[in-house]
């Protein structure tokens, strides 16, 4: 079984796997439209994490993990809790295209997608509003800023040829807001 990750699974799968491949799926765009009140936020201050939006002309880069034997049941049980129960995601099968030049045919992979019907779905917002929400959110897996920056780093280092304007514009909005926050905090400490 192959499992495709496009958010925190790219750097922290949390389950044992046999192999991993960087690559992409077609027909979806990655968006910070899913709320998170557990891993990267709280009930009071929900974080923003990514989901996939059907988009016929787009592709989303990430990592596919191959799980075999006893790894299958353990990984699916873990992901069901992490992504479905706590995250509000549904599962789908998609065609994963490995980055390797000499790769074989596309691989069928399981992917978790949060739909607008789940209670944690936040939907669209401006890059600045998303960045502002990410800055103030933190959950049991860490700060929401870490989630955004690790995902941007993954794209930069493992998929430099790929474009993800949504992701990088939120990162840019975050870095333009952060100096203001540091300045404000230092100013408050001095007074």
TrEMBL record:
<dbReference type="GO" id="GO:0061928">
    <property type="term" value="F:glutathione specific gamma-glutamylcyclotransferase activity"/>
</dbReference>
<dbReference type="GO" id="GO:0016740">
    <property type="term" value="F:transferase activity"/>
</dbReference>
<dbReference type="GO" id="GO:0007219">
    <property type="term" value="P:Notch signaling pathway"/>
</dbReference>
<keyword id="KW-0524">Neurogenesis</keyword>
<keyword id="KW-0808">Transferase</keyword>
<comment type="similarity">
    <text>Belongs to the gamma-glutamylcyclotransferase family. ChaC subfamily.</text>
</comment>
<dbReference type="GO" id="GO:0005794">
    <property type="term" value="C:Golgi apparatus"/>
</dbReference>
<dbReference type="Pfam" id="PF04752">
    <property type="entry name" value="ChaC"/>
</dbReference>
<dbReference type="InterPro" id="IPR013024">
    <property type="entry name" value="GGCT-like"/>
</dbReference>
<protein>
    <recommendedName>
        <fullName>Gamma-glutamylcyclotransferase</fullName>
        <ecNumber>4.3.2.7</ecNumber>
    </recommendedName>
</protein>
<dbReference type="GO" id="GO:0005829">
    <property type="term" value="C:cytosol"/>
</dbReference>
<dbReference type="GO" id="GO:0006986">
    <property type="term" value="P:response to unfolded protein"/>
</dbReference>
<dbReference type="GO" id="GO:0006915">
    <property type="term" value="P:apoptotic process"/>
</dbReference>
<keyword id="KW-0456">Lyase</keyword>
<comment type="function">
    <text>Catalyzes the cleavage of glutathione into 5-oxo-L-proline and a Cys-Gly dipeptide. Acts specifically on glutathione, but not on other gamma-glutamyl peptides. Glutathione depletion is an important factor for apoptosis initiation and execution. Acts as a pro-apoptotic component of the unfolded protein response pathway by mediating the pro-apoptotic effects of the ATF4-ATF3-DDIT3/CHOP cascade.</text>
</comment>
<keyword id="KW-0963">Cytoplasm</keyword>
<dbReference type="InterPro" id="IPR036568">
    <property type="entry name" value="GGCT-like_sf"/>
</dbReference>
<keyword id="KW-0333">Golgi apparatus</keyword>
<dbReference type="GO" id="GO:0007399">
    <property type="term" value="P:nervous system development"/>
</dbReference>
<keyword id="KW-0914">Notch signaling pathway</keyword>
<dbReference type="GO" id="GO:0006751">
    <property type="term" value="P:glutathione catabolic process"/>
</dbReference>
<dbReference type="InterPro" id="IPR006840">
    <property type="entry name" value="ChaC"/>
</dbReference>
<keyword id="KW-0834">Unfolded protein response</keyword>
<keyword id="KW-0053">Apoptosis</keyword>
<dbReference type="GO" id="GO:0003839">
    <property type="term" value="F:gamma-glutamylcyclotransferase activity"/>
</dbReference>
